[in-house]
Amino acid sequence: MRIDSQQHFTSEFSPSLLAPILKRNRFEGTVVVAKVASVEETRRLLGLAAEFAFIRAVVGWADLESPDVGAVLDEYQRHAKFRGVVWAGGAARGMLELERRDLTLELAAGECVSAIVARHPGLRVAVVCDGTARVPELPAGVWLKLSGLITGRAMQWKAADFQGAVREALARLGPERVMYGSDWPSYLPEGTWKEALAAFTQAIGAQTLEAREHLLGGTARRFYRIGDTEE
Predict the structure, then answer these.
(1) Is the pLDDT of residue 17 over 50?
(2) What domains appear along the chain, each with residue ranges and CATH number?
(3) Among candidates 184, 131, 188, 144, which has minimal Cα distance to 25?
(4) What's the pTM value of the predicted model, to 2 decimals?
């Protein structure tokens, strides 16, 4: 199963637009990630996931500093495809709730990853990088999502722009801890979903079939436990 591990939906760019693109490119599913920091946005995405089978997992937003975060996560977890939270606020007390519930946490590169992992060793963490700069050293057990390689530079990118960073990350982490995300539709209309995939495959270069299976779906399936509790 091939999985696009990071994309978003807007009022203009809906699941019905993405579904045929995935089918043409032999991808069986996606992970939709909240781009708006609101509970309402997460509820909307969970509703879409219930409607569209190809949405295999939802990464939502919750205020990890709020004393009410447990109630919010209770609500989200009533949906079988909810998997975790994306967060940009540094260490927060709500991370203990994520760890206790075995939910995932996604952080941008540059966040205090080492400190968070040291405090919450059981928390499943993924760092999201766009390949524009050297991937930081990551603690053991932290996963890497390479997403948005052409976002902000569609039609002007060259694989060489991010090839060094991507290949260094692969060499350090191995394909079992790295996953591909398109970041669709952030680069539209200048770029396309297929061009985002091409940027990634050109950046990783020649890989074994097993490594490609990890990068293009296997790693995402394991990290998000896709298939464990799907409806």
Answers:
(1) yes
(2) 3-224 (3.20.20.140)
(3) 184
(4) 0.95
